[in-house]
Amino acid sequence: MKKLFFIALTLIMALFVFSYGFMNSEEIIGDIVSPISAYSGGMGNVCFIADPIINPSLQLYGGQYNIRIGFGAMNYRESRSQYIFDSYDNNIGEKTLYDNSYYYGEPYFIGAYIPLSNFGVYIGYENLYSRDYNYNKIFRDAYYVTLYTDNYSIEGNINSYFISASFNLMGFTLGGNFSILQGDASTKSNIVYVDPSETDSMLSISEQYSGLKGGFALSYNYIDRLSATVFYHLPTIVISERSIDIIASDTISTADRQDGFIPSIFGLGIKYTPINLRPVSLLAEAIYERWSELNGEYMEYNDVIKYHIGIEHKMTKDFTTLYGVIYEPYRKNNHVVDAGFTAGAVYEINNIDFVLSTQYIQNEYENNSIIYKNRYIKMNFDVSMTF
Question: Which residues pair with 180 in a beta bridge?
Fold first, then answer.
């Protein structure tokens, strides 16, 4: 069994290295915090096994109640650089044009009630989308004289308050999910001129998000060693009520509505556990996002298939290690890929699980001779109690 484990781990790491060949891009990637628990975060972001929003057909065993409380944190860093010719040293060097980083954190809660052995209800709160982005650019003329600076920042999030229910019969578990989406965001842009005769300007946008989201899933368990899950989520309109203020020589205030969109999502997940004294479970998940539903006169997106692979290795009765790989193309350009690896650990004391996981994800691409490098480090910690 150890040989099988190391072969699987080697294949996963090979896939991670191979993925770097597809990391060239002509588009920029947004900053998204995935809605995951620490358990799935340690296994390549495999969500179908632990997240009742993604997979509402989850079925708990061993207790009537389950409570999971956790916290997810992310450190994001973006750098931009350019290769230039140094006439003094007579060589080509890389010059850093921009370097930005920030930290972001968000708690989550999931509770489950299993009144019958074949029926369960889940309620909870999770963060679905987050941004905390700052950018500062200096504009110069042909003689490298500074004309003005443009400072841009956006902060915001969308949270999901959800209820899911599942019913088990003859090895099949059918579940449904209903989520209420709420959130807000603030965008600011300031243009400051060096020439005092020019008028500085400021743009400020405040947004309030709301929406409804739903989906369902079907799982099948075969002799407790092999399980498969298919899930589908309906396309969702996220309403954004905006207040806009423009301050320059005059002040203009207005309001409008600009809707966002979450596409149709299809997913398939498989978990296999061979017979062994210290079982190793292999997990794989593919998620198809149909972004082409948005295509029209003003935008052109590609459909995306995201791949998550994980390994759960039970080292002792109370201690389990987690490993995984993430491979997620970007909807505007499928050659842009978030690729990375994950690791985690689970320690059990009676009916309480302590789970810690970390993820390292990065991408690198070039656009108009500018080299973009993005790096994400995500950590999740949660405590789960079954009673």
Answer: 161, 212
Q: Quick one: pLDDT at residue 343?
A: 96
Hey, where are the domains in the chain? 2-386
Task: Read off the DSSP letter of residue 199.
Answer: P
Residue 387 has a CB neighbour count (10 Å cut-off) of 11
Q: State pTM to two decimals.
A: 0.83
Instruction: Kindly list the averaged pLDDT for each block of 10 residues, start to end, along the chain of length 387.
Output: 43 34 29 70 90 88 84 85 68 73 83 87 88 78 85 87 93 95 92 90 93 95 88 92 91 89 92 82 94 76 92 92 93 85 94 94 84 88 91
Please give, one letter per residue, the 3-state secondary structure of the chain: CHHHHHHHHHHHHHHHHHHHHHCCCCCCCCCCCCCCCHHHHCCCCCCCCCCCCCCCCCCCCCCCEEEEEEEEEEEEEEEEEEEEEECCCCEEEEEEEEEEEEEEEEEEEEEEEEEECCEEEEEEEEEEEEEEEEEEEEEECCCCCEEEEEEEEEEEEEEEEEEEEEEEECCEEEEEEEEEEEEEEEEEEEEEECCCCCCCEEEEEEEEEEEEEEEEEEEEEECCCEEEEEEEECCEEEEEEEEEEEECCCEEEEEEECCEEECCEEEEEEEECCCCCCCEEEEEEEEEECHHHHCCCCCCCCCEEEEEEEEEEECCCCEEEEEEEEEEECCCCCCCEEEEEEEEEEEEECCEEEEEEEEEEEEEEEECCEEEEEEEEEEEEEEEEEC
Partnered with residue 131 across adjacent β-strands are 156
User: Torsion-angle region of residue 171: left (phi > 0), alpha (psi -120 to 50) or beta?
Assistant: left
* Token pair belonging to 358: 């970390």
**CA atoms of 250 and 202, how far apart (whole Å):** 11
Dihedral angle sign, alpha carbons of residues 136, 139, 144, 146 = negative
- Pairwise CA distance, residues 359 & 378, whole Å: 5
Please give the pLDDT value at position 364: 85
DSSP H helices in the chain: 2-18, 38-41
338: helix, strand or coil: strand
Class of domain 2-386: mainly beta
| CB hemisphere CA count around 95 (13 angstroms) | 9
pLDDT of residue 27: 29
